[in-house]
Amino acid sequence: MWLNHIVGGNILLTTAAIAGGACFGDNIGLISDTTIVSSGIQKVEVVRRIRHQGVWSALVLLSGIIVFTVVGFTMDLPSTVGDPAEAINSIPADVWTALAEKRESAVKLLEQVRSGVPLYMAIPLVIV
Description:
mainly alpha
């Protein structure tokens, strides 16, 4: 959301994309607690449910891609590319000091994002 604010994007479109991605991921994920619990309640094997639900999820994904593409072209959205490093560099020094005192891990995370996250960090996302 912060990057949407920086580039002047549409907050509703960004929120819809986040919610849609979360719902899609939760419904299709083999390790989703919702999928496992509902499969157990219905006495259906998780793999079988995923196989049948996958068709509907793929159709929803395809329709979402089409809708977001059409909306993206018709809403006259800015074509600004957000630079996380630039956004992080604009954080005031007193905020860095407060973060270092209260949440040192947040400072480390922001420094990692500023320097660029290595591609191998995406491996778990692809595997799961």
